[in-house]
Amino acid sequence: MEFITEVRQRVRWLAGEVAVVVGPATGAVRRRQWSRLWMGPAAALIVACLSLAFRTRPGHIFIETYAITRPGEPLHMALLRLPLSMFAPAALLPIWFAVLQVGVVYALAQALLGVRTTILVAAAGHTLATLSAHAWVLMGPPLGVGHRFDHFGDAGPSVAVVALIAYVAVARRVSWLAVAIVAYHSIELVMFNALSQREHLIGAVTGAVAAAVTRLAQRDLGELDIVKLPKIPGEEVS
Question: Which residues of 51-79 are buried (b: 16+ CB within 10 A; e: fewer)?
Fold first, then answer.
């Protein structure tokens, strides 16, 4: 009986932890508040359109010119391609999975954090990871990667997704999500040990640090109206 009771308690705890992440989004769906979820479908649509366009000759040329960054390129070229590179197809990322992860994570993040924070965290994670690619090449093995990666495309939309997940895990103190991120990156780095995995790591660190800094500022200043985590919509008691 004690074992069954403990199992039930752990299941309730896990359900509560999951509800922290998905609760605002499911609440928005129940209330048909689609304005709280539009970022997911919008981002997924952009990823799908760019991925399909990449399979055509004109689209391939356009995306190679304006959406895919490489470590060996000059900085001004990387900055020019940076906005679209957040949604550009990645070599080892299947289209269906890219669309799925972007659609789900952006929608959950918007419902939890709001539009502004979602954009800032995703853009910061992707930007820092992209700019770090050249440094990883210069560093060389074993900490960095070989010079052959100078001409490899970046990690695509997955870095922004990882940054958002890490931000939510730290900002909302979702322990199971934090453990999942650490486990995922450890396995990914051991299995592949390439440039994309290091970019994912930068994205995760960026999201986690941003959330931690926000929490520390909130605690130290004690001024919730000046520096605060975005409220979860629907938390207010009507």
Answer: beebeeeebeeebeeebbbbbebeeeebe
